[in-house]
């Protein structure tokens, strides 16, 4: 299990979804920031194909 990065979130920050904890939100955005542009493009293409 990945460790949750230490980060300073603004006071009053809420996760992007009501069923997601703040720790999960911080981890998800940290992992997304680590993706290369190529990986991000692949994810967008896969999402587009799923939605068609």
Rg over CA atoms: 14 Å
| Number of DSSP-assigned strands | 0
Q: Name the overall outline.
A: extended
Helices, by number, come to 2
What does it look like?
There is one protein chain. With 52 residues, this protein is mainly alpha-helical. The protein has helices spanning 22-34, 37-51. The longest helix is centred in the last third of the chain and has 15 residues, at 37-51. 0% of the residues are buried.
Brief synopsis:
This protein has 52 residues and is an all-alpha fold. The protein has helices at 22-34, 37-51.
Question: What is the fold's blueprint, element by element?
Answer:
Elements: H1 22-34, H2 37-51
Distinctive features:
single chain; 52 residues; mainly alpha; extended
